[in-house]
């Protein structure tokens, strides 16, 4: 049996005000401080559609290769939650703003997880809808408090077809979508703040047979937790069926502490949502510049072709450009594109050094990111590194790489200098090389004398080399580098040792 996964993703639109009211959108505001009369569903209040939210949905649809419906409709979806005062949600059930798109995503797969796997999932639709408020459960006092600050905030519900097979694929798709939304500026994508929430529809079946009964795992706020929840649910359903049981069509939640899913409610008990056209909103129409009806002000309209022309460079295009321009590995392009500040740092170094981009990326990925990790700094905090006051600014690393390229220091000495730069803010690479006498030995006679001493004190290794084991030569080179503190030129060193052991 194999798993089948589809996703419903609720992306909070990055806007100043809510979808149908002028109330401000702000995270961590005091409870119930950002609530308009409409948000509280007071009698006589009417919705006024936020143009920015429509533009965000259209831009997202274009970036996801969707067809944009020039006419879409709003509907009421009726259900009762304490944090939804109206008793219904305004959504787009019948005719959403965008349909029939696709998202291409990649992840590292294979047995050694070193192969780039690229897949595509189809986007069924993108619809505009209201968010609900929040119910805050105060268990010690046996009460529930309602905060309506979030009620009415604009959402894009992005529905992905059930074409994924495991948690790893779903997590990769969500990460790629998150990056696209952040690049567009249509959603901040901070999952910890609830700006991107994922519902996973999971089932299992035997290939060639109809899809199995699905369960829905609700409100997952982390790509890592999403992968765990899906993989657990697939395995749970497989074991249940193998034991002769039946999968229930139910809603489940992911327990982060136990990494398991637990039942929430039975979907068979769901009430009829009683969808009906929203009577207070006319059809939503968007246009192309050439098709604006006479008498309408284009500045008040959403123009699809203008939004298409304004789309920024998308992550997939940027990764391809980096690979083509700098000849770096695809996996390195993913790391760079995932962090704008790291990408800025890399490109600044490339522009300032004579070293090849392939060498620069190695230093950025291994030395720079490694040092950040050692100091418990997130890569997202790498904005500090673009400051001229940073211990290893782009200019400082470029200077160090130029010293290495010019043959003034060895690679081991360069790594030592890099670590010293972290400890000595304000110093240059050149200063550290001079203070610690790390420059390459330039006197051939001195280097030959050191090599002779190593050869004389390691007769067994010399004998092994003469018998054809050339790998042992590397051990002799290591001994010389130890004596010279890494200051010997490797090319010159190898030539001298080979000459000595061959006589």
How do you describe this structure in short?
37% of the residues lie in helices and 21% in strands. By secondary structure, the chain is α+β, with helices and mostly antiparallel strands.
β-strand number: 16
Strand content: 15-25%
What number is the mean pLDDT? 91
Identify the overall geometry. Answer: elongated
- Give the proportion of residues in helices: 25-40%
Widest beta sheet: strand line-up: 2-6-7-10-1-11-12-13-14
Instruction: Indicate the radius of gyration in whole angstroms.
Output: 30 Å
Low-confidence blocks of residues:
none
Major beta sheet, specifics? 9 strands, mixed
What structural category do the secondary elements indicate?
A: alpha+beta
Number of distinct helices: 15
| CA-CA gap between termini | 67 Å
Keywords:
503 residues; alpha+beta; nine-stranded mixed β-sheet; three-stranded antiparallel β-sheet; 16 strands; elongated
Overall description:
- With 503 residues, this protein is an alpha+beta fold.
- It is 37% helix and 21% strand.
- The chain has 15 helices and 16 strands.
- Strands 2-6-7-10-1-11-12-13-14 form a nine-stranded mixed beta sheet. It has a three-stranded antiparallel beta sheet with strand order 5-4-15, with no helix packed on it. A two-stranded antiparallel ribbon has the order 3-16.
- A hairpin with a 4-residue loop joins strand 13 and strand 14.
- Helix 7 (340-352) crosses helix 8, helix 12 (444-456) packs across helix 15 (490-501) and helix 13 (459-466) packs antiparallel against helix 14 (472-483).
């Amino acid at each position: 049996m194999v798993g089948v996964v589809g996703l419903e993703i609720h992306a909070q639109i990055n806007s100043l005000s809510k979808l149908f009211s002028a109330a401000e959108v702000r995270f961590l505001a005091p409870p119930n401080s950002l609530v308009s009369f409409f948000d509280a569903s007071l009698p006589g209040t009417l919705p006024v559609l936020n143009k920015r939210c429509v533009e965000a949905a259209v831009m997202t649809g274009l970036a996801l290769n969707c067809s944009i419906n020039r006419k879409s409709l709003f509907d009421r979806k009726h259900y009762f939650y304490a944090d939804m005062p109206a008793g219904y949600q305004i959504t787009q059930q019948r005719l959403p703003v965008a349909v029939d798109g696709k998202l291409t995503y990649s992840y590292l797969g294979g047995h050694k997880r070193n192969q780039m796997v690229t897949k595509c999932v189809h986007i069924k639709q993108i619809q505009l809808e209201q968010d609900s408020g929040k119910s805050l459960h105060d268990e010690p006092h046996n009460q529930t408090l309602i905060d309506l600050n979030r009620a009415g905030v604009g959402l894009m519900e992005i529905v992905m077809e059930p074409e994924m097979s495991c948690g790893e694929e779903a997590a990769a798709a969500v990460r790629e979508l998150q990056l696209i939304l952040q690049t567009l500026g249509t959603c901040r994508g901070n999952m910890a703040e609830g700006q991107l929430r994922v519902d996973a529809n999971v089932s299992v079946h035997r290939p060639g047979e109809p899809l199995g009964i699905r369960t829905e795992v609700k409100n997952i706020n982390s790509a890592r937790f999403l992968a765990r929840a899906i993989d657990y649910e697939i395995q749970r359903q497989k074991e249940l069926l193998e034991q002769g049981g039946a999968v229930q069509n139910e809603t489940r939640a992911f327990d982060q502490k136990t990494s398991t899913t637990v039942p929430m409610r039975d979907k068979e008990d769901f009430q009829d949502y009683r969808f009906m056209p929203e009577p207070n909103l006319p059809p939503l129409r968007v246009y192309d510049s050439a098709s604006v009806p006479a008498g309408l002000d284009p500045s008040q309209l959403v123009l699809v072709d203008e939004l298409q022309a304004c789309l920024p460079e998308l992550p997939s295009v940027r990764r391809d450009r980096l690979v083509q321009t700098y000849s770096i590995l695809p996996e390195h392009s993913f790391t760079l594109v995932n962090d704008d500040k790291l990408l800025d740092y890399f490109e600044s170094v490339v522009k300032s050094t004579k070293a090849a981009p392939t060498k620069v990326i190695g230093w950025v990925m291994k030395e720079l990111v490694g040092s950040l990790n050692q100091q418990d700094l997130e890569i997202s905090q790498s904005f500090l590194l673009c400051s001229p006051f940073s211990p290893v600014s782009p200019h400082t690393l470029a200077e160090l790489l130029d010293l290495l390229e010019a043959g003034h220091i060895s690679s081991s000495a360069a790594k030592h200098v890099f670590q010293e730069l972290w400890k000595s803010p304000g110093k240059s690479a050149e200063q550290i090389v001079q203070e610690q006498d790390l420059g390459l030995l330039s006197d051939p006679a001195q280097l030959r004398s050191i090599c002779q001493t190593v050869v004389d004190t390691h007769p067994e290794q010399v004998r092994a080399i003469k018998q054809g084991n050339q790998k042992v030569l590397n051990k002799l080179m290591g001994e010389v580098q130890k004596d010279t503190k890494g200051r010997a030129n490797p090319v010159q060193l190898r030539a001298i040792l080979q000459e000595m052991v061959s006589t």
